[in-house]
Amino acid sequence: MEKNLNEVLNGLERLPQVITPKDASLILAYTGISPDAKIVDAGSGSGFLAIFLAWYCPKGKVITYEKRMEFTKIVERNISKTGLKNIEVKNKDVLEGIEEKDIDLITLDMKDCEQAIPEAYKKLNADGWLAVYSPHIEQVERIVEEMRKNKFKNIEIVENIVREWQSEFGYTRPKSQGLMHTGWLTFGRK
Ligand SMILES: C[S@@+](CC[C@H](N)C(=O)[O-])C[C@H]1O[C@@H](n2cnc3c(N)ncnc32)[C@H](O)[C@@H]1O
């Protein structure tokens, strides 16, 4: 039997902190992007978000920017393990510019990502989406300010809190341990 995406992701290398399917799924839910979407992602990190998006947009393309060569190599290795053909990794600093245009969705997950917002606005198509992942609320504040300055609409900040429960020995209750905090996603539309 072929592996599903979660099984594929479990077999990949992780170096920088990754965006897990719990949070990545919000990007599909909030943007409603099509399977043929053109997506730009930065920074690639371990490539988890880029792989997640490429998996669910099989007729589209994901171009992911990573400025550090050692992480670019990890992403290339991870992509080759997935067999996906619709992802391209660029060993480039996204703050020096986004080469693509008419983009349906830009995702950002990196330090100082608010600095990429003006360029993201220019390169999105007329109703394209920006989704920014932030582990700290201070970064969310900077992102929202920059999105407003750049005239993004429909700005929404969301956090996906998942509480797992256990049912054992005749008793059902929330698990006392688990992943409590991951990050926030801030969405905006051109
Ligand atoms: C937290 S990781 C991204 C994880 C990724 N979203 C995933 O799910 O695997 C952040 C990455 O952004 C990269 N980065 C930071 N600034 C960048 C820039 N200006 N351009 C491109 N990549 C950058 C870092 O080298 C790091 O690998």
Overview of this protein structure:
The protein is an alpha/beta fold. The chain has one domain (5-189): Rossmann fold, CATH 3.40.50.150. The chain has helices at 5-10, 21-31, 48-56, 69-82, 117-123, 137-149; strands at residues 38-42, 61-65, 87-90, 103-108, 124-134, 153-159, 165-168, 171-174, 184-189. The strands form 2 sheets. It has a 7-stranded mixed sheet with strand order 3-2-1-4-5-9-6, sandwiched between helices. A two-stranded antiparallel sheet has the order 7-8. Strand 2 (61-65), helix 4 (69-82) and strand 3 form a beta-alpha-beta unit. It starts with a helix and ends with a strand.
Secondary structure layout:
Layout: H1 5-10, H2 21-31, E1 38-42, H3 48-56, E2 61-65, H4 69-82, E3 87-90, E4 103-108, H5 117-123, E5 124-134, H6 137-149, E6 153-159, E7 165-168, E8 171-174, E9 184-189
Parallel strand pairs: 1-2, 1-4, 2-3, 4-5
Antiparallel strand pairs: 5-9, 6-9, 7-8
Bound molecules: S-adenosylmethionine (SAM).
Gross morphology is globular
> How many angstroms does the end-to-end distance come to?
41 Å
- How many structural domains can be distinguished in the coordinates? 1
Strand residue percentage: 25-35%
CATH class: Alpha Beta
Could you give the order of the helices and strands?
A: HHEHEHEEHEHEEEE
